[in-house]
Design brief:
The complex is a heterodimer of chains A (about 130) and B (about 30). Chain A is an alpha+beta fold and about 130 residues long. Helices cover about 30% and strands about 25% of the residues of chain A. In chain A, strands 1-2-4-3 form a four-stranded antiparallel beta sheet, with helices on one face. Chain B starts with a helix and ends in a 6-residue tail after the last strand. Classes of the chains: A alpha+beta (about 130), B alpha+beta (about 30).
């Protein structure tokens, strides 16, 4: 178990190679593959309406620790705020379907032992282990 | 070394010019 005041991650805004960017450093007690997930999603995502931030740079120190620099989403980017009206609900569902359409259907990396469990067993294990 | 100090060191090395810290997540204690 980690000390009470341990910090899991910190996010900064700033500039990287003259572009508005976000720097995130993480040291989590859980396994994370955020930079790889983002990189692979951007590679397979062909949507014109649903974009993820571009990954500018990253380093994975180990399975729980690393950092990444990614594109900063512009202030004017559209976000949903609840409660959604019926038009916004429809728009959200369309975007969700778009996301499902381009999200990789099969794992893009070797799975961990726990990730090979069925979804119900995986969730039970996850809840019991706190990961 | 703290995560914050690590961040400053990496930012300097890669040429990221920080303007603002916008988020910090603290570790939640696992319930026994």
């Amino acid at each position: 178990m980690r000390p009470k005041k341990a910090i899991r991650n910190i996010i900064y805004t700033g500039k990287y190679k003259n572009q508005e960017a976000v720097f995130k450093i993480y040291d989590d007690f859980r396994i994370t593959d955020e930079p790889i997930s983002l990189k692979i999603f951007n590679k397979v995502n062909k949507s014109n309406i649903l974009k993820a931030p571009e990954l500018f740079n990253y380093k994975i120190i180990n399975s729980k620790k690393g950092w990444l620099v990614m594109e900063r989403i512009p202030e004017q980017a559209k976000t949903f705020k609840t409660p959604l009206n019926s038009g916004e609900q429809r728009e959200f569902l369309n975007l969700f379907l778009e996301y499902k359409k381009y999200f990789p259907k099969k794992p893009t990396r070797d799975l961990l032992l726990a990730e090979n469990l069925s979804s119900d067993k995986f969730q039970i294990t996850r809840l019991n282990n706190g990961f | 070394m703290s995560l914050e100090k690590d961040a400053k060191k990496i930012q300097e090395k890669i040429g990221f010019t920080e303007s603002k810290k916008i988020y910090q997540a603290d570790c939640a204690q696992k319930k026994q």
